[in-house]
Protein: non-reducing end alpha-L-arabinofuranosidase
Amino acid sequence: DGATITATIRADQPGPKVDADIFGQFAEHLGTGIYGGIWVGKGSSIPNENGYRSDVLAALKAIKVPMVRWPGGCFADEYHWRDGIGPQKDRPVKINTNWGGVNEDNSFGTHEFMGFAERLSARAYVSANVGSGTPAETARWVEYMTAAANSSSLARERAANGRTEPWTLAYLGIGNELWGCGGNMRPEYAADLTNRFATFAKSGSGKMLKIASGPSDSNYEWTDTMMRLSGKTIDGLALHFYTRPRDADWNDKGPALGFPEAEWASTLQHTLQMDEFITRHSAIMDKYDPEKRVMLAVDEWGTWYDPTPGSNPGFLQQQNSLRDAIVAALNIHIFTRHAERVRMAAIAQMVNVLQAMLLTDGPRMVKTPTYWAFDLYMPWQNATSLPVTVDGPRYRNGTVDIPAISVSAVRDTAGAVHVALVNVDPNRALPVTVDLKGVRATAASGRILTAEAMDAHNSFEHPGAVAPKPFDAARVAGGKLATRLPPKSVVVLRLR
Ligand code: AHR
Structure:
């Protein structure tokens, strides 16, 4: 319909702070997510710092990863922390029953994870084993990690294993998907267990927020029961939602590359459901917690496609394309809009698994389009959200009918205003005018992420195919920003 889209940014009515932790990432013992992806061991020929891949560390530092969640996922409710401490020769080899049935030699354990988070200057989020463990095991793990130096036998054991001072544990997950792989529980039983585990897990070094296993998608009954029975003992409730092109069938999700436009459209429509899920879970939480003390932690989100042909299906490997970058941007906009309740999130997952930030193959590494989306949105970390309204055309394809443009805006801690504009339409460039209420600016510049093909991606052969480029086609005059957004693009601008 060619009409100009009008958006309004209310910098004169600032909203809540956008917690940096909504840019958190999830790293599970799954496929090559940890082994090969993050950890290659000290003796590896792949360049590393004390066993951590140097290329991966550098890439993650560059986007200021604020938080890392570990060790699962489904893996967490089978994990026994004592298997992963002490000399390597004494660590048991187990079978990773959830993910491909491969050996788990426990060479990446508590010290290796905490060291990783520390190297990234990221907050640590550890998920405890509720499904097959005991409250005592979790309590001792927390004591091992956080008790003051020399204060107990566990603190001394930690020192003997190379770490005298306690670590800070920002988040403790009380199990994972307790309705499914975490133990197939009823919410009433899960809530009772949550209260038991939460009661005895006590941090010796600073505030540790306790995150309960929450709902997936639209399981509102789970949220209601958990909030009613555990709302006072927890600090957060997790939400998991995976975006799929064909959301009707988990066995036929659709390919990561080479998809038709209909699946571009259905993927973006599906991901936008995140807004509805957050809105409705939050409304239930409001009944029990009108102050919003308990956060909704979207600690697993992202795309889930059919695995890369020829890969071990249990490794959940998939390529990552421009479509994924658009998914990431739309979700960041949604989290920003719900910043009051959504104060932490973790994309699934960090390296080589599902909607990964980075892909590795032996010594090679590529940054995915999703990585570049996170790079573009760094100014959102700890900024003040600004209310936005958008009025304009739709993107339609088959039964899909969604807004063509998504806009998000923040004021960073130094006072600068940043505006992000996403055009989901893969065919049409769209003119946009943004009314900047309460902003004094005369110019805008920034970067764009786009490509010719919907499934443009970075391969090991062409690692730089999709990457941000400078964008200077925006004009600011008379309190309005005007530009033309290329099809299937993410544009992030800083106003001056
Ligand atoms: O991220 C992969 C898996 O998805 C996680 O282990 C589980 O929590 C979820 O079902």
The longest strand covers residues 295-303. The first helix runs from residue 54 to 62. The chain has a mean pLDDT of 97. The radius of gyration is 22 Å.
